[in-house]
From TrEMBL:
Enzyme Commission numbers on file: 2.4.2.9
InterPro entries associated with the record: PRTase-like (IPR029057), PRTase_dom (IPR000836), Upp_B (IPR034332), UPRT (IPR005765), UPRTase/APRTase (IPR050054)
Note on how the cofactor is bound: Binds 1 Mg(2+) ion per subunit. The magnesium is bound as Mg-PRPP.
Keywords: Allosteric enzyme, Glycosyltransferase, GTP-binding, Magnesium, Nucleotide-binding, Transferase
Residues in Phosphoribosyltransferase domain copies: 11-213
GO molecular function: GTP binding; magnesium ion binding; uracil phosphoribosyltransferase activity
Organism of provenance: Ketogulonicigenium robustum
Annotated transmembrane regions: none
Activity regulation note: Allosterically activated by GTP.
Gene of this entry: upp
Reaction catalysis annotation: UMP + diphosphate = 5-phospho-alpha-D-ribose 1-diphosphate + uracil
Phylogenetic placement of the source organism: Bacteria, Pseudomonadati, Pseudomonadota, Alphaproteobacteria, Rhodobacterales
General function of this protein: Catalyzes the conversion of uracil and 5-phospho-alpha-D-ribose 1-diphosphate (PRPP) to UMP and diphosphate.
Name listed for the protein in its UniProt record: Uracil phosphoribosyltransferase
GO cellular component terms listed in the entry, alphabetical order: cytoplasm
Domain of life: Bacteria
Length: 214
């Protein structure tokens, strides 16, 4: 029997990330602070998720002499946010790579079935030519991420990475079974899911905490 080899799962253990994540987990943290921390963490996680981006050389002139210098071709990158909470990770990465193309997959998780319900889909053209980074702070059951990546692959995407803040072991297993080619970057793999599909210890509902809804 042949075993499927999965793309790597990277946990970003950097002290700055872990410190900010602890502040985000605390239930007394305000909506304003939560949003600010998510933005700050997104800049740090962007460093890891963009590590293997393809580079090209561009001819430039330094004050001393011409050289072929490495650059990222931002236009070849597609950043895909899973609405709503994905936007909290998107903004920081977009600030670092402003030329990136941006898409949105609108999904919410039905609280009873824990199945994703799609309400929006808009992605850049020529997805097959791009490196795609999908962002959503929470990988819980994995149903939302798997559904989003199903849709992105139907749209042509091939080279896909997934960035989240918190992952559950169940969500990682589900994503790896459905899409073993997709690498995962996260700030933490938490303990398990509770009976309502929430990550334990987690941070609660990321979208509600970002936007002050409930
Ligand atoms: O792995 P899953 O079990 O599918 O759960 C994770 C999903 O749940 C949250 O979104 P939610 O449905 O709350 O929508 P929101 O971002 O609009 O709040 C989260 O941002 C993920 O998209
Ligand atoms: O713990 C969880 C699970 C799903 N969605 C969230 O926002 N948090
Ligand atoms: Mg939510």
């Amino acid at each position: 029997m042949t075993e499927t080899t999965c793309a790597p799962v990277t946990v970003v253990n950097h002290p700055l990330v872990q410190h900010k994540l602890t502040l985000m987990r605390e239930k007394e943290t305000s909506t304003a602070s939560f949003r600010k921390l998510l933005r700050e963490i997104s800049l740090l996680l962007a460093y890891e998720v963009t590590r293997e981006l393809p580079m090209t050389n561009r001819r430039i002139e330094t004050p001393i002499q011409p050289m072929d210098a490495p650059t990222i071709d931002g236009k070849k990158l597609a950043l895909i946010s899973i609405l709503r909470a994905g936007n909290g990770l998107l903004d920081g990465i977009l600030e670092l790579i402003p030329a990136a193309r941006v898409g949105f997959v609108g999904l919410y998780r039905d609280p009873d079935t824990l199945q994703p319900v799609q309400y929006y889909f808009k992605v850049p053209q020529h997805m097959e030519e791009r490196t795609t980074i999908v962002v959503d702070p929470m990988l819980a059951t994995g149903n939302s991420t798997v559904a989003a990546i199903d849709l992105l692959k139907e749209a042509g995407a091939k080279d896909i990475r997934f960035l989240c803040l918190l992952a559950s072991p169940e969500g990682i297993k589900r994503l790896q079974e459905a899409h073993p080619d997709v690498s995962i970057v996260t700030a933490s793999i938490d303990s398990h899911l509770d009976d309502h599909g929430y990550i334990v210890p987690g941070l609660g509902d990321a979208g509600d905490r970002m936007f002050g809804t409930k």
